[in-house]
Amino acid sequence: ILNYDIMARFRRRTCIILLLFILFICSIMMALKTLRPDRAGFGDPFGLGLLPELQQRTVLLHSKQNSLNRAQGDTVTRVSNLHSIAVNTMKASMFPVKKLEEELSSPNYNFHIFYYTWYGNPQFDGKYIHWNHPLLPHWDPKIANNYPKGRHNPPEDIGANFYPELGSYSSKDPTVIEAHMKQMRSASTGVIVLSWYPPGMADENGEPTDDLVPVVLDYAHKYNLKVTFHIEPYKDRDDRSMYHNVKYIIDKYGSHPAFYRHRTSTGRLLPMFYVYDSYVTIPEIWANLLTVSGSQSIRNTPYDALFIALLVEERHKHDIHRSGFDGMYTYFATNGFSYGSSHHNWASLKAFCDSNNLMFIPSVGPGYIDTSIRPWNNHNTRNRVNGKYYETAFSAALLVRPEIISITSFNEWHEGTQIEKAVPKRTGQVVYLDYKPHKPNVYLELTQKWSEKYRKEQEQWLM
């Protein structure tokens, strides 16, 4: 009887302790559920909204309100608001990331795609930028008088022969940036080659965009993409300014998880910079920066990187080698336009690069047409032939077994090289080209197809 009484009391005590423990755990869980740090980091579960759809609507409302305030606020405030909108939008849409990873093709970090963030519209920028591109006069004044002059008048009349599915968008719109990242990821590209000017500088038809880089990096990281830089030919670009530019980029953006670094054959991980119109600067100036003995040498410093020069003419290959560049790319999507962009020259260029320890990066494109901004340039138009032109370029590139293939372009609409989604459109004055009979995403699908083909063939090259 005594033993039975002791056992009964032991069971009661155990049940009470278990009940108290369960209540303690439940209270902790309820407390954690109510916690939502304002600055939860990427991937932190507490950064997710409890009601994502409601949060998404709230973000969009704030986005519209902020866009109205931009025209009155100063530049610093506008950039701060933009980044805040982008971060909030990302938080609201983070919950389907795992599903997104399952649905999209895996990124191919050997496929690099040129990307432009120079577009603007009244909602986000107070005016149209680049969509209202001027008609450029012919270099010969005698011929120039035979062609129309003036500017395009968006949103119906834009400086492009195709019309984007997203309309005359702003590159600052977070929803546009995210849509672009999703498209590039669906195409199985891996590295975004971002057109870049130093802070406070821009092309003659645009405005500075360096402040947008952090937002691009954040969204690229969400889609497991990497970002490298396409350094444009800004005024007074030389060895000294380039040293400062590279230092600025690496110091400011180099620690971001989306910042691209390329693993070399020796195992080093180095940033990569494409240098547009590199041939404008003489080899001796580049050698100051890019050779070990140069007066401004960046070699064997914390800012050492892979520098890829633009090859246009055949003689440029010797200049590129003498300058100390690490490789060359061809950029133009016009087969036959230049020596570098002519597919039949890629084998000899690859052989030259192989024998001189240089990277050869051929550039493929879906076609070319720029008569919306250069009405006199019909002879350089390359018809897309319903995707066949693009596939021919990929086929030519794979024949030379390159380490990297670059794609011109995701969204250079002025020159008609975009693979971004385009839609049929007709206005009173203009009938835009389109991708029919295919869907708006046909060039994304073709890129994905060739990315997979490249992967399979690369496995054979390495065997």
Structural features:
ten-stranded mixed sheet; 463 residues; globular; alpha/beta; single chain; 10% strand; TIM Barrel
Q: Summary?
A:
With 463 residues, the chain is of the alpha/beta class. The chain has helices spanning 2-34, 52-70, 75-92, 97-103, 122-125, 141-144, 174-186, 213-222, 239-253, 283-290, 316-323, 346-355, 388-399, 442-462, and strands spanning 108-115, 189-196, 226-231, 261-263, 269-275, 306-310, 327-329, 359-361, 363-364, 405-407.
Look up the CATH topology. TIM Barrel
- Cα-based radius of gyration, to the nearest Å: 27 Å
Count of beta strands: 10
Q: Spans with pLDDT under 50 lasting ≥5 residues?
A: 32-79
Beta fraction: 5-15%
Count of separate DSSP helical elements: 14
What is the name of the CATH class? Alpha Beta
What is the structural class?
alpha/beta
Number of domains: 1
The largest sheet is: 10 strands, mixed
